[in-house]
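forwarding from the other thread:

> can someone predict this with zinc ion?

sure thing
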Amino acid sequence: MKYRFLIFGAHPDDCDLAFGGTALQLLKAGHEVKFVSVTNGDAGHHIMQPAELAARRKAETQRSAQVAGLTEYEVLDNHDGWLTASLENRAQIIRIIRRFNPHVVLTHRLFDYHADHRATAQLVQDASFLAGVPLCCPDTPVPDDFSVVYGFLCDLFMEPWPFKPDVGIIIDPVIEQKIDMVMCQESQFFEWLPWIEKNRQFDAAKLSEQEKRDHIRSGWLFRDEKNANRFRDILIEQYGEAGRNARYAEFFALMPLREEKDVAGFRKFFQL
Ligand SMILES: [Zn+2]
């Protein structure tokens, strides 16, 4: 059975970071993976102007999609920093879900430092039930075999409660390819993010290719390493001895949309 995975991130790098390693392995196994950036990322720079930046970031997503072999990487033309959980945006999300007809949809949690992440989380949760209601957005029909499981991408926030994963995916075999994907978002990882994090000494022009890769590994993928240690039990439960020794992993959790969580049913989509 081949599955379709639809991942909603607020910005044109969120899906790469939270789902890149899993996407690479699912794609290799013949599944389909589509990323959606709900904003165009046009606020994420300290020098470039919005329109020029949005075009550059769109091109970066398409390079990442090519590197990974993604089914599609769609970037919605909503302004970065100003996303709201509006009815219009909800309809946009419902239509995308129906057109792709996914088995699994994942997005951010509602607790997050960034307003766009929170709005994306709200929009996807608002769409989750209504995507199956034919009289909502009747211009885009609900597919006959429509059956979607919704879940969250992992984060490091501790309040009001920490992330509780239902499935973990070891990404050690594809970690270099995940770095290849993240490296495509150069306007972010080598320009904007060092600036906004007040790392004013950072100058990507002075770095070798290997130093750039190390910057991504230690500066960003430490999260996958930290989470592998944080949720070691779930890796051992799923992978046995290999789970004990894994270095990097990505984790996902079911959205609590029903009284009971079908964890076994959720995990079956991720069997690689
Ligand atoms: Zn983001």
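The chain has a mean pLDDT of 97. thats all i got for now
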